[in-house]
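S.,

Sequence below, as promised.
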Amino acid sequence: MMELPENKKIILYDGVCFFCNDWILKIIAKDNKDVFRFAALQSEEGKAVLQYIGIPNHDLNSVVLYIPGVAYYTKMNAIARIGKEIGGLFSLLSLVTILPKSMQKYLYNYVARNRYLWFGKSETCLLPPKEIITKFL
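The prediction came back faster than expected:
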């Protein structure tokens, strides 16, 4: 396993999804406490983290929040925890946890199935701008 940055929470995301990339840039802009580091699920670093925590890397329909030495969260649970950590309007994302689990699963999977159709995708993972490259594994 590669060396992970100390005291950082890792967000794994779909690196070819324009919607996902846009959200990652929004999270970075609001991450005033420098809590997060990022890796595309398709990247070697992302695959290594998935393997380390025991998630099959063929499931690229999930965002993953990994808190080293603590736990990992996927899909709506990851989104809610990320939103709560960032605060402000993002903390409203944590409200999804009041929905029944079946509704959370349905909503997440609906967006995940349609994100490429609605927002598009790239053939390869998008490269982060130079100003924020240090935020990525």
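Helices lie at 18-30, 44-53, 75-86, 101-119.

Coffee later?
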